[in-house]
Structures are given as C-alpha cells and as structure tokens.
Amino acid sequence: MSNYADPNSLVPTQWVADHASDENVRVVEVDVDTTAYEEGHIPGAVGWNWQTQLCDTLQRDVIQKGDLEKLMSRSGISNDTTVVLYGDNNNWFAAWAFWQLKMYGHRDVRIMNGGRKKWLAEGRTLTQDTPTHQATNYKASDPKDGYRALLPDVMEVYRNAGVALVDVRSGDEFTGKILAPPGLPETCQRGGHIPGAKNIGWGLACNEDGTFKSVEELENIYNTKGVTKDKDIITYCRIGERSSHSWFVLKHLLGYSNVKNYDGSWTEWGNLVGAPVERGE
Amino acid sequence: MTDRGQNGVIWWEHRWKEANDMSQRNYQEVKQELEGHMVKVITYQIESQHHCHVEIVDPGAVIARGSGNSLEEAKATALAKAQSRLSK
C-alpha cells in the first residue's frame, strides 16, 4: 500500500488481525446495514450506527462536536488512539466516519482495506461479544475547513472551469432515469445531476474483493474524465456517504490537495426549488 | 487465493481458528437477475446460523438480509425482501 499518497490511512486485514487488541488501537465497525455488527464482528470492535450516532438526529447535519466527543469517549478512544474503521458495502460508512473524524481533527484514523466483506471472505475470526472499554475524556477540535462543501459553496463554484464536480452515483441516478438506487428510498423530487458534473461511480475505485485499486488504475479512472490534481474537487452522491468514499480515494490514496465532500448531495440539490439540473449523460 | 467456479460462484479459502471466537464458513457469492436488476447473493455460515444478503450490483448496496437455521431459509428470507423492494 506504499504507493498511495497517504499509505498510513489504509491497513490490510492482516494488520488488523495482528493489532486489533493493541491497547492504543480501537477497531470500529460502521455498516450501511446496522444489523450486521450483531451477526458477528472483529473481536474487540466497537459498533457505530450511522443513522443515530454519526449524524445530528434532530436537524440534517453531521455529528455535533459534543456528541462526537461522547461517542469517542464511550468507545474508549483517546485523542492519541489509532482508530481503524471498517464496514459493509466496501466501507461506505466507514469512509463516512473517516471523513468526519478527520474533519474534527482526529490524528490517526485508518480504513481496513476490503472492509467487512474481505474479513468475512477470508474466514477470519468473528465474535458476537460487545466489548466494554474504559471511558476516556476525548476532546475534538472544531470542524476544520477544507473537508466539507456546503450548498452555498457548490452554488458559487459549480460552473467554474477550475472546479471538478464528481457525481459518484450510478449512471441511472446521474442521468435522471431513477431517483435512488433500486431498493432504496427515493429522497428527491427531481432526477438528474448538477450541471457540469462528471459521473464517476464510487465502485470503480474497488476491486472485486472490496480492496482499493492501485494508484495507476485510480489515476486513470479520474484523469480520463478530467478530474485532475490541479482542480478543486467536490464529490457528491445521494446522501453524502458514497461521496465520502470517493473523497477518501482522491484525498488520501491519490493525494489530491483540494477535495471536499458535499454531504448535502442530491437529496439537497434535487429538492431545491429553482436549482439548475441537467439530465442525460 | 480465489477460485471462480461455475455460474460465477466465487469461493474463498478460509482458515480456522481454535478459539472461543467464531469464524464464517462456506462464503459464496452468486450473481443473478432479480426483478430486472443484477444482484449479488452472498451467503455464509457463522456457527450454526446461515446468513444471506442481497446486494444490488449497480451501485453496489445491500438491499436485503436474511438469517436462518438453513441456507435455504436464509436465502428465501433475503430474496423475498429484495424482490419486494425491487418490485416497487
């Protein structure tokens, strides 16, 4: 994994098997399907629920600083703990958690390459025991600039030539043929995409076993669509989690310097009265 | 490490551990069409429980999950849920 721009942000399953019980390491599972953790998880891993623990449950927003501090403290995570995140769907919500932890200034956070799928496929040890960890007194920093794009930011720059908007949804969502991935709730009034956005599905970054593709393969995927290092990049999807996966790829694996995740994403833009929309390819 | 068998089935070698902890067995992925969509049906066994989840291939999201005392029961539960969701 040394070819990646930030090789420390990614660890193989074997590293987790070797270090999961280290005192200064905390493994955390975050799944799309919130029942997966109970089925069996990496011994010692804490489970976080993205629907109730990684967001503001009153207004639509990321987790508030105070709530993150409580979550980290309850999970036995100190400011100097190495946090290793993994989950289902090739780490969709692990990446969502990674993005938020980085935004709130956690120093050492990593993703397990291949996620839950690879751990299961390799027949590695699981448990249904829920660990208890001694609470800490975790202190988060204020949200740092440079991680998140809000609606006004996107409105201001989406037509700029130096900005690359990357829509990481499926082709059918991008063209407006469907409003949400099949089988998932439709959360917008209009289908289509933000004018000028390039459609580069999040899954293109992954191999069949759930691991990330090589730097060369990833660069090729993005560069051929005009998403290059010199541009300011904004990723978006439907609710912001798939786009945090692509944000991780661009920022930490390829080392693009200015990449933000627009977590308002299509559920915000596609519901706005009067917002410009493009359909088709 | 991997061996692709007939009908797109992928088997992974898995290792066993002598410990109180569990490990999964019989991990299998099969691609098939369901309600006009390509889905991946993933099955495995943890201890005596069988598990199945159905993933829509594009964009790659789990849309249904089922568990049971047999492989057939887990698959039937997950596929029925997936079919119901995809047919809407």
What are the main properties of this structure?
heterodimer; A: 281 residues; alpha/beta; Oxidized Rhodanese, domain 1; 2 domains; 5-stranded parallel sheet; 10 helices; 10 strands; 14% strand; B: 88 residues
What does this structure look like?
The complex is a heterodimer of chains A (281) and B (88). In chain A, the strands form two sheets. Chain A has a five-stranded parallel sheet with strand order 1-5-4-2-3. Chain A has a four-stranded parallel sheet with strand order 8-7-9-10. The mean pLDDT of chain A is 94. Chain A has ten helices and ten strands. Chain A folds into two domains: 7-121, Oxidized Rhodanese, domain 1 (3-Layer(aba) Sandwich), CATH 3.40.250; 151-269, Rhodanese-like domain (Oxidized Rhodanese, domain 1, 3-Layer(aba) Sandwich). Chain A has 281 residues and is of the alpha/beta class. In chain A, helix 7 (171-175) links the parallel strand 7 and strand 8. Chain A is globular. Chain A has helices at residues 13-19, 36-39, 65-74, 88-103, 115-121, 151-157, 171-175, 215-223, 241-253, 265-269; strands at residues 10-11, 25-31, 46-49, 82-86, 109-112, 125-126, 163-167, 198-199, 232-236, 259-261. In chain A, helix 4 packs across helix 9 (241-253). Chain B is an alpha+beta fold. Chain B has one domain (2-86). Chain B is 18% helix and 51% strand. Chain B has a six-stranded antiparallel sheet with strand order 1-2-3-4-5-6, with helices on one face. Chain B is globular and about 40 Å long. Chain B starts with a strand and ends with a helix. Residues 1-19 of chain B have low confidence and may be disordered. Chain A binds chain B through residues 32-33, 35-36, 39-40, 43, 88-90, 92, 117, 120-128, 169-173, 181-184, 201-203, 206, 208-209, 242, and chain B through 2, 10, 12-17, 19, 21-25, 27, 37, 42, 44, 46, 49, 51, 53, 55-56, 58-65, 67, 82, 85-86.
Q: What's the layout of helices and strands?
A:
The complex is a heterodimer of chains A (281) and B (88).
Chain A: E1 10-11, H1 13-19, E2 25-31, H2 36-39, E3 46-49, H3 65-74, E4 82-86, H4 88-103, E5 109-112, H5 115-121, E6 125-126, H6 151-157, E7 163-167, H7 171-175, E8 198-199, H8 215-223, E9 232-236, H9 241-253, E10 259-261, H10 265-269
Parallel strand pairs in A: 1-5, 2-3, 2-4, 4-5, 7-8, 7-9, 9-10
Helix pairs in contact in A: 4-9
Chain B: E1 2-4, E2 10-12, E3 22-34, E4 37-46, E5 49-56, E6 61-68, H1 71-86
Antiparallel strand pairs in B: 1-2, 2-3, 3-4, 4-5, 5-6
